[in-house]
Amino acid sequence: MDKQSRRESRWQGLTLLLPMLAALAVGVPTFQVVNASQQRALESQLQATLTANRESMQLWLESEWQRARHALESAKLAELIASGNRPRLDARLQDLEEGLQGQAVSLIDMEGRLLASSVSWTQAPDFSRARGLVHLRRGENTVLGLQRRGPGQSACVSLAVPLEPAEGQPVRHALLLHRLAGAGLSRTLAVARFGATGESYAFGPEGELYTESRFPDHLQAIGLLPPAAHSAILGLRLGDPGVNLVQGQRNKLPAAQWPLTRMAQSAVAGRSGIDVEGYRDYRGVRVIGAWQWLDELGFGLATEIDEAEAYQPVRVVAQGFAVFGLMLAAGSLALAWQQRRQALQRRALAAAAQELQAEIKVRREAEIEREQALLIAEHASRAKTRFLANMSHEIRTPMNAVLGYVQLLQRDGQLGPEERHKVNAIARAGQHLLALINSVLDMAKIEAGHIDLQDEVFDLSELLQGLDELFELRCRQQGLTWCTGLVLPKPCPVRGDRHKLNQVLINLVGNAMKFGRERIELRAERLIDGRFRFLIHDDGPGLPENEAEHVFEAFHQGEEGIAKGGTGLGLAITRGLVHAMGGRVRLRNANPGCEASVELPLAAAAELAPKAVRQGPVQGRLERSVRALVVDDNDDNRRILGETLQGLGAEVQLAVDGQEGCDLALARPPDIIYMDLRMPRMDGIQALKHLRAQAATAQLPIVAVSASSLTMRREDFLSAGFDEAVSKPFMLMDIVATLTQLLGVHLIDTSSPARQDLPPATGRPHVPEALRHALREAAELGELTKAQRLLDGWLVAGGDAEAVELLRQMLRRFDWDGFSAALAEADHD
User: Fold this and answer.
1) What distance lies between CA 283 and its chain's CA centroid?
2) Which parts of 76-152 fold into alpha helices (H)?
3) Window from 285-294, 417-426, 721-730 with minimum mean pLDDT
4) Residue of 93, 130, 99, 135 whose CA lies nearest to 113
5) What pLDDT, in 10s, does the model give residues 709-747?
6) What is the C-alpha to C-alpha distance for residues 36 and 25, in angstroms, rounded to an integer?
7) Which residues, 6+ apart, have CB-to-CB distance to 450 below 8 Å?
8) Omega before 491 within 30 of 0, i.e. cis
9) In degrees, to the nearest 5, what angle opens at C-alpha 202 toward C-alphas 197 and 203?
10) Residues 289, 45: contact at Cβ < 8 Å?
């Protein structure tokens, strides 16, 4: 080859090389600029997505904590925890689960031990190593990781809320709300992610997955999840296999021996970061991502996207330079296209961020509205309680006058038969009105959580026997067949609230009698766990489907119930009383009719306390002189109580307010004072404190007389300094009981001369055996009102009118001995 040819060849080579060098000179810096720009965009996008996930998750957690706090405020668990009654504590947590729409709840102490739960665990979870315990001890809300209730069960995230301790005391207990991780945390983190391969998830301190994976099919195909697995939560560990499992490569070591991914190692060490250079995820696929460890919650968050998808634009540019390396224009065009795409991505991300912020704002506004609604409801509840308290006082005050004067007239021996019949009718109507008032107040006490339980030992078989005899007579009067199945020993000593259990069973049997057609049945049995079950069955029409879920609501009555009459409070009061005693009540169709079921915890007692037996006569006048002071601003109430005491033989002074009462008591100390509470100038509490501060009256017996039965309980009066309390409208036996209890004064029997005025009996009266038993029990306990109601019911059912009048006259004279003797002499079934 000559020199010219060599020169041409060199020129041709140079001609080819120069464009290539020029392309390289332009392409390499351009590629670096594009790559750097893409990395910055990806860092920004990853950080924004991670921030959005964290805010969305925090909002969800705050909402769940708020629900748990509201449930905790209404549950009043402190007394149950202190009592150590595990069955009642479990029952209260089960009620909480129903109020939280089926979300399970548990109670733990500050050592992480499970104390009680609304659900059964196959293996009790151990929270003793949970990092969140540190925050609970400081009184902060936190998360105690994820757990399964048992094999095959869905994983739950345990949200913890501390129980507010007494002032100056450390936090001792916390309430856990077990929220399904798939339904809560997974959905929350699915809000913000980007790209076809983008994924956001939460993980625990051992690298275990806390949320669902976006690639369940891949995970089963490559063997990280069993084919039958329904969830990756707690079933997948963020281990680095070292190879790409999706491409068919395999690691011979077991998955449990794989080291954590680079991201997971950094996070569980408490560090946050962003890596756009690339690392392997738990599938062995190279990804880029951002992560943050949330120490206060005990888990980490991560958002990732496959490296191939993230850098797809850069690869497109590189391929463009390779294909059109000699075309500088193509490189510029590719750069412009890339910049355009980045701008579109930024705009899309900005739009997604705005949409997410709008959603967060809507949720926050909804939460604020909910808190305001709860506040309004609390104010309304307090206003209702104040209204009922005032109405109780305003209604009981005139009722005291009505029933008080009726009792005085009933003791008047000068009344003729016609006038006495009218007075008795007024007394029955007044007692009925008082029962209605008490039903409304009982419902208000239940809603306000003011139910007082009396813990006493009683014979359950005797209580049921009394109900058997009582309702056998009532059913016979209504033409119904009464049946019992009482599988209990005799005696059956238990510990609980006898009167409230009696009220529950009377309410349920009375409700069954309203709807039964031919047959009513009561059954009772002891369960193996120390609980008792009571079943009441009727053969009536049963519950309509549209009323079954509303039957225990206050004032709710179906068409049948409205036709039968009543207030619509009986079943609502029954449910409140049963729940207060730690039990459950259900009402269901039994085909035919309806069946009510009550389960109650009644602890077994070693032995029964001896029965109280009346000693000596309980009628006539006081055995010695007593000076009493009555302090009340209401003229009728003052006169009624004064005349009642005078009728018993007491010397009475009257005062119109607390100031006058103090002046009279200090001038001439009486033996006993009956003090009203609401009075002008000086109320009853102020007068009590003034008298207790004076030496002459410091030990004087003072009895509170109040119509405020809703806001004040007997324990409140005693703790205020009163020696005893009587509620309006008071009964004569209430007054006699205070005189006997505080002064040791009894009534002397003056009935013998009066008996000469009684109409002679034409023969031995015929009294049904069940009625004789109930009347004899009322006589033993001195229950005047109960005896009068039984006699009234017998007379309405066609009983012996002459015998009823004879027994009534004995009751009016408080001749309990003669009353019992007449019952013993009467004919019976």
Assistant:
1) 46
2) 78-83, 86-99, 133-137
3) 417-426
4) 130
5) 555 577 788 888 999 988 877 777 788 889 988 998 887
6) 17
7) 710, 713
8) yes
9) 115
10) no
* pLDDT for res 753: 44
Gyration radius (Cα) of the chain, Å: 41
Q: What are the backbone angles phi and psi of residue 340, rounded to the nearest 5°?
A: -65, -45
Taking a C-beta distance cutoff of 8 angstroms, is the pair 619, 816 a contact?
Answer: yes
Residue 456 CA to residue 121 CA, distance in Å, equals: 34
Report the SS3 class of residue 734: helix
Contact residues for 499 (Cβ-Cβ < 8 A; gap 6+): 454
**Are 797 and 809 a contacting pair, CB within 8 Å?**
no
pLDDT tens digits along 437-452: 665 666 566 665 556 6
Place of tokens 């005391």: 169
Q: Tell me the C-alpha distance between 732 and 582, whole Å.
A: 35
**Residue 588's closest CA among 635, 634, 633, 542?**
542
How far, CA to CA in Å, does 343 sit from each of 41, 194, 340, 347, 686?
10, 15, 5, 6, 79
> Which helix or strand (DSSP H or E) is residue 32 part of?
helix 3-75
Residue 185 has pLDDT above 80, yes or no: no
Helix (H, G, I), strand (E, B) or coil at 241: coil
Using CA atoms, how far residue 156 sits from 135, 139, 147, 515, 656, in Å, is 20, 23, 5, 45, 66
- Taking the C-alpha atoms of residue 214 and residue 221, their distance in angstroms, rounded to an integer, is 14
**CA 652, 653, 658, 664: dihedral to nearest 10 degrees?**
-130
Closest CA to 730 of 626, 624, 634, 589: 634
d(CA 250, CA 224): 11
The residues that bridge with 203 in the sheet, in sequence order, are 209, 300
Higher pLDDT, 200 or 332: 200
How is residue 555 written in tokens? 């004032």
Q: Say which residues have a Cβ less than 8 Å from residue 142's Cβ, sequence separation at least 6.
A: 132, 135, 136, 160, 296, 297, 298
DSSP labels, 314-379: HHHHHHHHHHTTT-HHHHHHHHHHHHHHHHHHHHHHHHHHHHHHHHHHHHHHHHHHHHHHHHHHHH
245 within 8 A of 222, measured Cβ to Cβ: yes
Residue that has been written with the tokens 């206050």 in this structure: 554
pLDDT of residue 762: 42
The two structure tokens encoding residue 332: 């510029």
| Sequence-separated (6 or more) residues with CB below 8 Å from residue 36 | none
Q: Tell me the DSSP string of 760-793.
A: PPSS--B--HHHHHHHHHHHHHT-HHHHHHHHHH
Classify burial at 591, counting beta carbons within 10 Å of its beta carbon; exposed 0-12, middle 13-18, buried 19 or more: exposed
- DSSP, collapsed to helix, strand or coil, labels residue 168 as coil
Question: Computed from CA positions of residues 720, 722, 723, 728, in that sequence, does the dihedral angle turn out positive or negative?
Answer: negative
Identity of the amino acid at 408: L
d(CA 90, CA 750): 57
Contact between 220 and 239 under an 8 Å Cβ cutoff? The reply is: no
Residue whose structure tokens are 């000559």: 2
Residue in 480, 575, 592, 585 with CA at minimum distance from that of residue 537: 592
User: What is the Cα 64 distance to its own chain's centre?
Assistant: 17
With CA atoms as reference, report the closest residue to 492 among 522, 521, 530, 529.
Answer: 530
Tokens in use for 119? 């659900």
Q: What is the pLDDT of residue 77?
A: 76
pLDDT category, 279, cuts 50, 70, 90?
very high
Residue among 667, 636, 670, 640 at smallest CA distance from 653: 670
Phi/psi of residue 436, nearest 5 degrees: -65, -45
Place of tokens 């005050």: 397
**210 — phi, psi (to 5°)?**
-100, -10
Nearest-angstrom CA–CA distance, 409 and 416: 11
